[in-house]
Amino acid sequence: MSVATEFRQGTEPGTDGTAWKTVHRVVFPVDGDTDTLPLYVDFDAARRVVESEEASSKRGAASPMVSQRSEMRSDFILGRRELSLPAHRRVSFGTYFNAFPASYWRAHTDVQQVRLSIEVDAEATVIVYKSSPRGSSNRVQSLHVTGGTTATCDLSLTTFADGGWYWFDLVAHGQDVKLKQADWSVPQPEGFTPGSLSIAVTTFNRPDYCVKHLRTFAESEELLAVMDRLIVTDQGNQKVRDEQGFDEAAAVLGDKFKLVEQGNLGGSGGFARGMHEAVEGGESTYVMLLDDDVVVETEGVLRAVNFADFTRSATIVGGHMFNLFERSVIHNFGEGINEYRFQYQPMGEGQSAHDFAASNLRTTPWMHRRIDVDYNGWWMCLIPTSIIKEIGLALPVFIKWDDVEYGIRAKANGYTTVSLPGAAVWHMPWTEKDDTIDWQAYFHQRNRWVAAMLYSQYEKGGRLPIESFLQDVRHLLSLQYSAVELRNRALKDLLDGPSHLHRTIGGKLPEIRKVRSEFPDAQVSKDLTEFPAVKRLHLPKFGMVPTRPKNFAQTVSSALSGAIRQLRPVDPAAAQHPEAVVPAADARWWRLSHLDSALVSASDGTGASWYRRDNVRFRKELLRSLALHTRVLARWDELSASYKKELPNFTSPEAWRQTFAANSGSGAEQQKPGQ
């Protein structure tokens, strides 16, 4: 038997004087959903796949994928923690939600060992595995278990410096076996005090989702035991309090629920209010920021709290995001900042939009390397209230980059963010829309520049200015004049300095919506029969429709020819009939720059817009963009110093308190029974 492993059967934890705390329970989906089942149970007979050295040496090489060959058996699931395994069958719990992320505990806590406890009702074999950072699995030990006892296994965490997980497989012998419960626990240090949390949800016109949140939390006894308060900040005109079922759910939560109504200050304003309420309440060790339109795995909330309780110092603990429409697909495993470009991006390669139904944890090598992040999205993110007290509330930017900036700010103040495997929600995917060309284009542009002025280590923001200008050029070549108008307004406001952030947060959205609505490319019609018939005015050269450039030379050639075309007068007939129908997926500069007008599908499939080339608008917006970028660069040092100096002020509770008061909305603050 390995010196790092000790098996005991029929022994209650703590008999050696050590107190053990359960931090990670083995759970199953409450509805037996076969779409999510691969995240909990692995029925595949395949053990592992290790990436070859040749493949790993190639930049961008995809990880090996092994299809799941076994059927999903939701009939095996008996309840939240119970599973029935027929005789002579085997299943693995080497899955996203039920394997233990050993390397994350090794890296961020002082915990040296973890205990696996399993209770079954009949004779079975439990086989424990560990993985290396390369994804290779190693059999640690097997244990013969019988019914009526709890088997425990103590496992060392000392070998997980760079990555790796623990998990177990369950094998039934000659009769059916019920797994009654299984969990992972760690030793509690002397004087250990568990933390508690407030959950802060910000919402805008999604009352149905919010009531689901209330019901979800009200039905979880384990979560209620650690939750001080559920704070819902309602910023919409479709009130949560008017939704059917609200009163009943709120009554169950009682004094653990608080409803706040205020004007629409965006995600940053809503989450800032939740942070503020949690800190002012004075009860909670942590506040968890949670999107309104997510489906929550409550066990993940508990795991985030448990993990935070054991970290060496105050740590932000984030959860992952799965696709609400493809429920076994994860958004990505970790996010960071490319400081030279000052743009957020996935950490590591091959880990975006990964489908666990196609390749589960045991057969996905890159997933066994620990991924260290710069920030975590605020779809699910636990923040210690001690950090909030020290570094302030959210950046007052309405939407976009607020979560990214907070992670960077925390890092600059010596605090770590961890995206913890096994803690996650399901959220609508970004792929269903392109928010860089709608009203959010303003916030994408301004907030990225604000963050860069606060934290960029490169002179004049590194590559950001040239990327920003080229992005404007791409939009103009794509006939997306509304996006460039909003991006130019963003730079103009940026030049006003930090004082504009709080001053405009409550009124900027109506302003930019009004401006955008005046542009043809922003006017979406759901009835495609409203548009005139398509008539091609100019035949494509050699009869070939432009395609994506394959190399740098083709990119330059296509861009130059497209730009020259933009400067020419527009054929009047283009205002009478669109020249082509262009799907949203093909609505790129290399296609649209060679047309005078086109019907372009909306990215969410709800309708289409009639894009029309405007050579006068092209010149005006291009020159304005060039002038604004030049002005910002000329004043970079001055503006950067100003934003840095004012950061503690415009993220302070005092500044936010004034903004809350000025945007109290129609409902002000309301509390439910028990308060």
Structure notes:
This protein has 675 residues and is α+β, with helices and mostly antiparallel strands. The protein has 3 domains: 5-187, Spore Coat Polysaccharide Biosynthesis Protein SpsA, Chain A; 197-334 and 373-432 and 666-671, Spore Coat Polysaccharide Biosynthesis Protein SpsA, Chain A (Alpha-Beta Complex), CATH 3.90.550.60; 451-631, no CATH class. Helix 3 packs parallel to helix 5 (246-253), helix 11 (464-477) runs antiparallel to helix 17 (615-634) and helix 12 (481-494) runs antiparallel to helix 14. The radius of gyration is 27 Å and the shape is globular. Mean pLDDT is 88; it is low at 1-13, 52-69 and 666-675.
Task: Give the helices and strands, then pairings.
Layout: E1 5-9, E2 20-25, H1 53-57, E3 83-85, E4 90-92, H2 102-108, E5 113-120, E6 124-131, E7 137-145, E8 150-156, E9 166-172, E10 177-187, E11 197-203, H3 207-218, H4 221-226, E12 227-234, H5 246-253, E13 257-261, H6 266-281, E14 286-291, E15 294-296, H7 298-310, E16 315-323, E17 329-330, E18 335-338, E19 343-346, E20 354-355, E21 380-384, H8 385-391, H9 402-412, E22 416-427, H10 441-455, H11 464-477, H12 481-494, H13 499-504, H14 508-517, E23 524-525, H15 552-567, E24 581-582, H16 589-592, E25 597-601, E26 608-612, H17 615-634, H18 636-650, H19 653-662, E27 669-671
Parallel strand pairs: 11-12, 11-14, 12-13, 16-22, 24-25
Antiparallel strand pairs: 1-8, 2-10, 3-10, 4-9, 5-8, 5-10, 6-7, 6-9, 13-27, 14-21, 15-22, 16-21, 17-20, 18-19, 23-26, 25-26
Return the domain count.
Answer: 3
Rg for CA atoms: 27 Å
Number of strands: 27
Mass-distribution shape = globular
Q: Residue-averaged pLDDT, rounded? A: 88
Output the structural class. Answer: alpha+beta
How is the biggest beta sheet arranged?
9 strands, mixed
Might you state the CATH topology name of the largest domain? Spore Coat Polysaccharide Biosynthesis Protein SpsA, Chain A
Q: What is the multimeric organization of the chains shown? A: single chain
Total helix count?
19
Report the uncertain regions. Answer: 1-13, 52-69, 666-675
Strand content: 15-25%
Highest CATH level, the class of the largest domain? Alpha Beta
Share of residues in helices? 25-40%
Distance between the termini: 57 Å
The second-level CATH architecture of the largest domain is: Alpha-Beta Complex
Order of strands, main sheet, comes to 15-22-16-21-14-11-12-13-27
